[in-house]
């Protein structure tokens, strides 16, 4: 430590070769602050996944531990052929795509509205962020009991004023009911990311376009949208990663019933209630494979934004 | 010249109309929360009417019921558990993330971007990927229904976010400031606590608030790994999933009280919220 403090920058270039051991020591001194976090992450997140991978090849019901045996790809075969599990794959796709697209479109409209100056803009921004800051279980309870309740929920209460029908939202359109509550929570997230994108536009370029007589629509199509593209991608991908994993809303609103069980819920149910460890692990691995596909794209987008940031600095 | 003046005035008028639309959208999005707050102050009979009773008398009965006046389970153990799990894991995250971010920005290791992206990739691994082994481990190690297991898991859940956020905050610190301290003989812990932390304090605070929110909200781990003793606030809320007669005011009071820390932390971190949620990709 004392050696490095006297000449922090100049020393390594001039005398790297004769002082090999100390250079190696210095490299480790540089690495040391990183190691606790790195080792912690590997132990807590990577090891359990490896264990999941191993368990997924075993036929293992925790109620009959003695009957545990290696089963090859049988669990995967069962996950992919079992109608209920296959349906939950499809439900996961519908849920994720529906929620991400809807909240992205609404989020974009709200971001465009908030990008203009108007009276009370800060207040409106705060009102719009609020849904994202309700604890997810609480939000799901709010929708289930306070808004969707067919007898005295707010939605039917408001419909009552205009003499509309009084639907039973959750039994009638279960998946849509879950999606709507999630769109309400995730739209602020998309709005915030897209608003940050809008505000990072080049003001001079916008002004120049305006002086040249470009209409608002032309500016939107030719300047704003191309600039927003990566922010839209980022919102879509991060949103997908979070919503693919959603458990709270499905668990609270429908308890996985009425055809709304997505993969995380199914995995939970398979081992927590049905005690099928091997099967649950295989389903878990499939969720991971799906996530890796999304994540590969997400990482690419994040890294391109990141590189731009680094080169700008 | 005059044509530009006319155009801007037209734009302004359009802007006022769109401002109104924005206000309307804000109110629509906020309405469920406002209604939840209002209902929490209504009596149970007023809470369950159709059409809704907007102007019914206000009462604190819903809150009294929630806090166990009617003989139900008290929410305090769950609230305390959630506080312990969220605050402790957030502190642990900061202790691990600060030196790591230092080694990824101020004095970067070789291939520091690869390390940064490794942290990010762990965030993309779904919770269900490791849930079962963690459950089996906890069962065998006697750690089921133990709040400290949640502390460890929440730390791993938030560490990547914290490393990313702090890396971007710390890279704004001039290296010369850090080097000056090191020439004066300061060792790494001193540099981190006396030099880096004071400069990056707003960023570190925002990071802490975002980690707090994610830990406070978490349900799946808590639901699977805790039972009676270590139950957290979201798990307590799942007790309201099935209807229990007239209980809307109580549900609203419970949801609001348990969301209050998140609302407060979220509004406090509003400016850095995007950066945290986008894992530092958007500033």
From TrEMBL, chain A:
<keyword id="KW-0812">Transmembrane</keyword>
<dbReference type="InterPro" id="IPR000515">
    <property type="entry name" value="MetI-like"/>
</dbReference>
<feature type="domain" description="ABC transmembrane type-1">
    <location>
        <begin position="89"/>
        <end position="298"/>
    </location>
</feature>
<feature type="transmembrane region" description="Helical">
    <location>
        <begin position="34"/>
        <end position="58"/>
    </location>
</feature>
<comment type="similarity">
    <text>Belongs to the binding-protein-dependent transport system permease family.</text>
</comment>
<dbReference type="Pfam" id="PF00528">
    <property type="entry name" value="BPD_transp_1"/>
</dbReference>
<keyword id="KW-0472">Membrane</keyword>
<feature type="transmembrane region" description="Helical">
    <location>
        <begin position="234"/>
        <end position="258"/>
    </location>
</feature>
<keyword id="KW-1003">Cell membrane</keyword>
<feature type="region of interest" description="Disordered">
    <location>
        <begin position="1"/>
        <end position="22"/>
    </location>
</feature>
<feature type="transmembrane region" description="Helical">
    <location>
        <begin position="89"/>
        <end position="114"/>
    </location>
</feature>
<feature type="transmembrane region" description="Helical">
    <location>
        <begin position="278"/>
        <end position="302"/>
    </location>
</feature>
<feature type="transmembrane region" description="Helical">
    <location>
        <begin position="176"/>
        <end position="198"/>
    </location>
</feature>
<keyword id="KW-0813">Transport</keyword>
<protein>
    <submittedName>
        <fullName>Carbohydrate ABC transporter permease</fullName>
    </submittedName>
</protein>
<keyword id="KW-1133">Transmembrane helix</keyword>
<dbReference type="InterPro" id="IPR035906">
    <property type="entry name" value="MetI-like_sf"/>
</dbReference>
<feature type="transmembrane region" description="Helical">
    <location>
        <begin position="126"/>
        <end position="146"/>
    </location>
</feature>
